[in-house]
Design a protein that fits this description.
The chain is of the alpha+beta class. The protein is about 15% helix and about 30% strand.
Length: about 500
């Protein structure tokens, strides 16, 4: 069997990148006028194909945000929104300031539970709670809160059974990590009411827009040059004027950047190179913006190694279905959005296809198509659009951005993203009221004076412009925008190890 030699690129210099160039070089065009008489094109009439070969197909990447969100104007340097916190009171043990610990010896007069400083103290005397060991969650006791020590961030609990909280410790330890939640309260006859009240809490988030720019320029002479190759672009631009294609491709590339910038955006942190150089007055004034991946990583769910048996869904070897069911269990603990969209790279998309196809074959005794609403045609079509698992509906598609060899397909560490469909209710600081917004949407700067959603203009003295004496046409592009990722706890980012 033949094979490509080691270190040999079978496609030559064209294996990966259709890189744009700033100028024509002697090495990238045929010389028809060297005067030697030996040039191939001067001796013979070549068979010239007059149409450019579109070997990479449609190369544009945008469209993700158009499918999942909306674009709305904004008139300030930042967008601020508030998200409601959980209704019920529960504490999960963490590390450091997020600890929830049974401290000291358990006695007949009660046991003490101490909260880390990052936990709000919302427990009140009279509350009834369920306490469980944090390690397994299998050892539980129901308790009554008998006393509160606000200064020490602790409270005393009494068990409702003959067992006390020492049963939640490991061996002879007097300190144990616990989880707990409030399930109600209990008071005797003729007693006073609950002491203290709880205020509704919210968490405030914000994001700032970034200014994205690009430009294309061509001299007047080159703009008037007719080529012999007919070119065409994804936006329908075609003809024998090469600059028309280059200008059109610059526009398409810029439109892709509008999406890529808010997906990949990163907020500059204190001590970073960007912030340090900005403080020195070097002319660098960028501050970044929170993109989709950054928002999910910070406030959402990140699932590693999906379908390879070693995902983040606990120990042991698991199938793709077990991985997916673990994700659903986590969604149950969040907003439980019933409809979700999956934007996946090719590998992960095929993993989903294989997973779902495997659920519908049960041998010669018959075939079930339950997850496809008993539609055999849908079940057998591995390019399906939607499926249902548990109480959730999912709509799957390939995300070209994750497959392209010059974008995320080159790195391959992001495998997909799950985005909740529909809208969420948030408090808008500008309007002073609760409004409905898509979970994922773009805000762009605009006012009566200037709409910066997508600006383009021509300067110079070519192409109809008469703004300067320069014998050139310069096309400028600009947009100012940011992404709002609301309720990021309902999003899932699929990553490689």
């Amino acid at each position: 069997m033949g094979q490509f030699g080691t270190g040999v690129d079978p496609l030559g210099a064209f294996s990966l990148r259709p890189m744009p160039t700033k100028s024509a070089l002697a090495s990238n065009y045929l010389n028809f006028a060297d005067g030697s008489g030996n040039d191939f094109a001067q001796q013979y009439l070549p068979e010239l194909y007059e149409a450019e070969v579109e070997r990479y197909g449609n190369r544009t990447l945008s469209g993700f945000l158009r499918m999942v969100g909306a674009e709305m104007p904004m008139t300030s340097d930042q967008v601020i929104w508030s998200e409601q916190n959980r209704l019920h009171i529960g504490y999960e043990n963490g590390t450091g300031d997020l600890s929830v610990e049974l401290t000291g010896a358990t006695t007949a007069t009660g046991s003490t539970i101490t909260l880390g400083s990052d936990h709000n103290m919302s427990i009140r005397v009279g509350n009834t709670i369920v306490v469980a060991d944090a390690a397994t969650g299998l050892l539980t006791l129901k308790c009554y809160v008998s006393a509160i020590n606000q200064a020490a961030r602790s409270f005393t609990v009494l068990s409702y059974t003959t067992a006390d909280l020492s049963s939640l410790t490991v061996g002879a330890a007097t300190t144990a990590d616990v989880n707990l939640f409030v399930y109600g309260s209990e008071f005797g006859k003729g007693t006073l009411g609950m002491v203290g009240s709880l205020d509704a809490q919210f968490t405030q988030y914000n994001n700032k827009p970034i200014i994205i720019k690009d430009t294309y320029e061509i001299s007047g002479s080159d703009a008037a040059q007719i080529g012999w190759v007919e070119v065409a672009a994804e936006d329908g631009t075609n003809g024998y004027l090469w600059y028309l294609k280059s200008e059109g491709e610059t526009r398409l590339r810029f439109q892709d950047y509008l999406e890529m910038a808010v997906v990949e955006g990163e907020t500059a942190t204190a001590g970073s190179g960007v912030v340090s150089q900005s403080a020195l007055g070097t002319g660098i004034t960028t501050a970044g913006t929170e993109g989709l991946f950054a928002a999910i990583t910070s406030r959402g769910n990140v699932y590693q190694n999906y379908a390879n048996g070693t995902g983040t869904g606990g120990a042991g070897t698991r199938s793709a279905l077990q991985d997916f069911d673990f994700i659903l269990q986590n969604l149950d603990k969040q907003g439980a959005i019933e409809e979700n969209m999956l934007f996946l790279d090719r590998e992960t998309s095929l993993d989903f296809d294989d997973m779902l196809a495997a659920q519908n074959s049960y041998g010669a005794g018959g075939t079930s198509y339950g997850v496809f609403e008993n539609s055999e045609e849908m079940a057998l079509n591995l390019g399906f659009d939607g499926f249902r698992r548990g109480s959730y509906d999912f709509y799957k598609t390939d995300w070209k951005y994750l497959n392209d060899a010059t974008t995320r397909g080159l790195i391959d560490n992001v495998k997909g993203v799950m985005v909740p469909a529909g809208t969420s209710t948030v408090y808008d600081q500008m309007l002073g009221t609760n409004i409905r917004r898509p979970f994922l949407h773009v805000r762009y700067r605009a006012s009566e004076a200037d709409d910066r959603r997508m600006k383009s203009w021509i300067t110079g003295s070519v192409g109809g412009a008469s703004t300067s004496t320069f014998d050139k046409m310069e096309v400028s592009f600009l947009s100012e925008r940011c992404l709002v990722t609301q309720a990021a706890n309902n999003f899932v980012l699929f990553t490689a190890a």
